[in-house]
Amino acid sequence: MTQPIDLQAFDLFEFCRSSGSAAGEIAARELPRIIAETSAEAPASAPDEVFRYTMSGSAHDEAAEPGKPARRRLFLDLAVQGGMWLNCQRCLAVYAEPISTATRFEVVASEAEADAAPMDDDEIDVIAGSRRFDLLALIEDEILLSLPVAPKHEVCPAVHESLVTGADGSVEPEPEDEQEEKRPSPFAALASLKTKH
Ligand SMILES: [Zn+2]
Predict the structure, then answer these.
(1) Listed residue (53, 39, 37) closest to 147, CA to CA
(2) Burial label, 121 (beta-carbon count in 10 A; 0-12, 13-18, 19+)
(3) pTM of the model as a whole
(4) Residue 53 C-alpha to ligand 1 middle, in angstroms?
(5) On the CB side of 87, how many CA atoms lie within 13 Å of its CA?
(6) 90 Cα: distance to centroid of ligand 1 (angstroms)
(7) What is the pLDDT of residues 81-120, one digit of tens each?
(8) What are phi and psi of 115, to 5 degrees?
(9) CA atoms of 31 and 34, how far apart (whole Å)
(10) In this structure, which of 3, 34, 115, 196 has its CB flanked by the most CB atoms within 10 Å?
(11) Distance from Cα 192 to the centre of ligand 1, integer Å
């Protein structure tokens, strides 16, 4: 069942209970935290690039334990695909990092319940539902969590010239190494103080 929904204020509980599904595209410009993480050297068209999402809700009734009422658990499956412009840490050039996430969330009644959820089940993230749920914020979270800690090309197109050679074409050591060599060792400084006494 597909239904039109307000992506920043829909009833997530009802969406799950009714096994709702939705899919669409969201432009990067609608995701401020994504724009903030986008490389300054990204093409001018970057804010127009879209992330595709698909999501579906479901409800599962757990068999009742003796003396307890049956419990209905709600789940949201969300997948996001797209790309983000980042700077490669190896060659510094801007590049497109592919984004592809697929996450199952258990939807609980409140933030307090989400916080209290046991952490031992790594397979399922727990989120607090809402009658005015903000899907864009969740999509932002998913994209940001999927970013590499150290963004890099798989294979850099070419190493940046300034990192390899000096102005005359000779190979220069990296500045940090140079400083390291010139800085006197603290033990050497102590030794020279001692000899002056
Ligand atoms: Zn690179």
Answers:
(1) 37
(2) exposed
(3) 0.75
(4) 28
(5) 9
(6) 5
(7) 999 999 999 999 999 999 999 999 999 999 998 888 877 6
(8) -65, -35
(9) 5
(10) 34
(11) 46
